[in-house]
Design goal:
Keywords: Transferase. One of its GO terms (molecular function) is acyltransferase activity, transferring groups other than amino-acyl groups. The chain is an alpha+beta fold. It has 7 helices and 12 strands. The model has no long low-confidence stretch (mean pLDDT 94).
Length: 263
């Protein structure tokens, strides 16, 4: 894929998934306020800045202060998703100066669905099951807790709302070795159907290195193709980036999550 094509795809990604994006969970609200697009969750889900377009450093500083006031009045912590191509060039430094804490940078990787393998090869005795009912979420959340740590209840609330109110936008998957849950993941579709995001995919340590991640990816590619998505995207941490690039993904942008100071 040439540089011009990447630039065009990045511009489309910014428009569809940042500037003109719909809420990514039921009950959330997306607003455009001046040069900022933000999401505010009413159910303890993700809140934060999705896109910003500043004409000057002064405008950036004013907008940062405004978002701190907005979320502070609601008592909500939030995240500012800063991309390397956002302006001004020192936006990250300005966020840090305002009290934000930078998390580990991630790379947005994209691939054309039609170019990816969509025939999963599962290890013997391993299968994937789609979860469509609330009762099936318990093992999904437990796998996430054991693999990623931390509080996974916000994810449970998000998935419960999605399954109840927007089931056509999400595919929740549980991978089983016999009846033992060993991995979990999801596919989320953009409202226009052009992009599909892959999330999760963590596998219990004892079951890594057996091809589960690759099979789970291929399974989600097949689901994305079935839904009519053209592009697959993922926010990849450094350990998973080379794996995904070998499978056909290309880097689109580097993004750094900046976490707000406590409200």
């Amino acid at each position: 894929m040439d540089t011009t094509h990447i630039d065009q795809l990045r511009a489309r990604y910014d428009r569809v998934l940042r500037r003109e994006v719909a809420p990514d969970e039921p009950g959330a609200r997306v607003e455009r306020t001046g040069p900022v697009v933000r999401q505010t969750s009413a159910r303890g889900g993700w809140s934060g800045v999705l896109w910003s377009g500043f004409a000057s450093a002064r405008e950036a500083d004013a907008a940062i202060a405004e978002q701190l006031r907005h979320y502070g009045a609601l008592g909500l912590p939030f995240e500012w998703k800063q991309y390397a191509h956002d302006r001004p060039d020192d936006l990250g430094q300005r966020l840090t100066a305002a009290g934000f804490r930078a998390e580990e940078p991630e790379t947005v990787l994209v691939a054309e669905v039609a170019a990816l393998e969509r025939r999963p090869v599962w290890p013997d005795g391993v299968t994937a099951r789609r979860v469509t009912e609330p009762a099936g979420l318990d093992p999904v959340i437990e796998v996430h807790r054991r693999v990623f740590g931390g509080d996974q209840e916000p994810l449970r609330r998000r998935l419960l709302a999605q399954l109840a109110e927007a089931p056509d936008r999400v595919r929740v998957l549980l991978v089983l070795a016999g009846e033992l849950p060993v991995s979990a993941a999801r596919l989320e579709l953009s409202p226009d159907g052009d992009f599909a995001g892959i999330w999760g995919g963590g596998t219990l340590p004892a079951w890594r290195g057996r091809g589960i991640y690759r099979a789970l990816l291929a399974h989600r590619v097949a689901l994305a193709a079935e839904a009519g998505a053209r592009w697959l995207h993922v926010d990849a941490l450094p350990p998973s980036r080379p794996i995904l690039e070998r499978l056909g993904f290309l880097p689109l942008a580097v993004t750094t999550p900046y976490l707000s100071p406590a409200p």
